[in-house]
Design brief:
This protein is of the alpha/beta class. It has a single domain, classed as Rossmann fold (3-Layer(aba) Sandwich), CATH 3.40.50. It is 39% helix and 19% strand. It contains 5 helices and 6 strands. It has a 6-stranded parallel sheet, with helices on both faces. The longest helix has 18 residues. It is globular and about 55 Å long. The relative contact order is 0.14. The structure holds adenosine monophosphate. Adenosine monophosphate binds next to helix 1 and strand 2.
Length: 140
């Protein structure tokens, strides 16, 4: 059976909150970080993790979120530069074993990977799904 993880999620917008709600429900320990207090309204009523209000670009805020204890950090803001900065700090300053980041610019994925950061690129994922749908429709 997979064990429960301590996961820090940076950004509590649509993506971050969705992940926080699902992973919290699955039994993992979660801390979400966002600099907009109202972003925490995206969390569901059964969310059982913690919330840290602050700018994740500041090391003190990441410390407050206990990133040094995290098994996994997921950087979900819509700003590639912030996600890269946070991912780099998580790896280099806090020694987080696994770091995942949302990256919109497909050409930047290599930079992250060289740092040992796993990436999800919504642009490439959406493009592939559109192409698949167009090709399927065209074949039928
Ligand atoms: P979304 O794109 O809807 O998934 O939302 C991204 C979330 O990331 C928003 O709630 C932003 O307030 C949050 N965010 C963006 N930059 C930072 C930052 N530097 N520190 C903390 N939260 C951030």
């Amino acid at each position: 059976m997979a064990s429960n993880l301590f996961i820090v999620i940076v950004g509590c917008g649509r993506l971050g909150a969705y992940l926080a709600n699902r992973l919290s429900r699955a039994g993992h320990g979660i801390v979400v970080v966002d600099y907009r207090m109202e972003a925490f309204d995206n969390l569901s009523s059964d969310y059982s993790g913690f919330r840290v209000e602050g700018d994740a670009a500041e090391l003190a805020v990441l410390k407050q979120a206990k990133v040094d204890k995290a098994d996994l950090l997921i950087a979900t803001t819509r700003d590639d530069n912030i996600n890269l900065m946070v991912a780099q700090a998580a790896k280099a300053e806090f020694g987080v074993p696994r770091v995942l980041a949302r990256v919109f610019e497909p050409r930047r994925e290599d930079v992250y990977r060289r740092l040992g950061v796993e990436t999800v690129c919504p642009t490439s994922v959406a493009a592939e799904l559109f192409l698949k749908s167009v090709c399927q429709e065209n074949e039928s």
